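User: My instructor asked us to take a sequence, write out its structure as tokens, and then describe one feature of it. I'm not sure where to start. Here is the sequence I was given:
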Amino acid sequence: MHKILLAEDDHRLATLVRDYLADNGFEVTIEGRGDRVAEQVRKLRPDLMILDIMLPGKDGLTICRELRPTFTGPILMLTARNEDADQILGLEFGADDYVIKPAEPRILLARIRALLRRIEPGVPSQPQTLTFDSLQVHSGSRSVELAGRPVRLSSHEFDLLWLLAQRAGEIVGRDFLFRELYGRPYDGMDRTIDVRVSQLRKKLGDNPDNPSRIKTIWGRGYLFIADAWT
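Assistant: Let's start with the prediction itself. The structure tokens for your sequence are:
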């Protein structure tokens, strides 16, 4: 049974979410104050965290930023409708996905299951290394080196890079990326992949204003340039 820590100060909503998830096989602990979340993480060692943005004591964005270096499980943010800045900040601070409140229980459950599937061990495959001049991407160790130096990527950043690098020279559409990474189609509005690509560019030394290594092909998707890593 997967353990979930739900940080939500709306007691009625938190109880409804806890009961629904419990009916679907999850063990859920509710924490209503942001300044107690870190202690709960240390005590409970949850498999996944659900963080509301607005919490008394400490907000969800701050919690995400502070815990991400040590908490390796998925973090799902609950954000207010139309608060695009909060959604983007959550992803930049280390959240894996977000759901807009009020969260429809079936959508929340689907997002949780998709995130947990990505951390569960699957059928072992033959480790591969993709090499593009100074860039090496290792599937076995899930590690990346650029010009001989390790590049620290989050789990989702690595998965995105691996998908793009495997298809070097091909335009990879957002709908394909969303289905592969999140198990859902692209809705035309979600900025998650865009933020992840922006983070990859920063970490891989690509010019964010005029990228030459991972290019945006407007209206179509992204293009990984194989010969741009000299």
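For the description part of your assignment, you could build on this observation: Helices lie at 11-23, 37-44, 60-67, 84-92, 105-119, 155-166, 174-182, 192-203. Try explaining in your own words what that tells you about the chain.
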